[in-house]
Amino acid sequence: MVLHCQLTAAGYSKREPVLENIQFTVQPGELVGLIGPNGAGKSSTIKSLLGVIDYVDGKIDLENYAYIPERPFFYPGLTLMEHLHFLLSTLEIEEKEFIKRMQKMLREFQLEKVVHQYPDSYSKGMQQKAMIMLAFLQQPKVHIIDEPFMGLDPTVVRKLLDMIEWEKQRGAGILMSTHVLDTAEKICDRFLLISHGKLIAEGTLTDIQKKSELPDASLFDCFHILTERGEVNDRLGII
Q: What pLDDT does 235 receive?
């Protein structure tokens, strides 16, 4: 187990928590999809894991992780190359090995010509590629990825999926929040479905199909029925 989350409650104040009874694990070499409607609590769950939410009642076991945010951010006044050299200074890794992998990723993501420019001047897609580079070069035990496919063209999405698979083979655990359910269905080992701040379903696609009573249905169809059922139960006060 590389990530364990056991939240009794979490949110922006103790009196009004936005998450309740969220419990899950991520194993080495496992890709877990975090899915749910807008406002369901996915971002709050990630913020709880990262320790950047105001109130947390529970236990989180997480170390040596890399985070790819939905909205890329960079250190002001540093070029991408300076970001990369700073990252290298924080890692216990052979410099030659790091530079070899760095140069390979720069070529694959077509960032070689802009590596000495400031990422703030990049397009959204280029910024996202730069964030992916900085995260995957760390080779952490856990990747936390928030909406990774936003702003990426199909070619880069394919490269990202290949990199995710390589990280799984290396033994890294991955928690990925996404709205792209058709892709998630193909690549995720398990799913966590959050609605109204509660975990309403979890498990493999087969588990989700059983929970939704839709044998052989797509993740999209299961998502729809379970979310609607969760909203009804929430209105009725049914746990």
A: 41
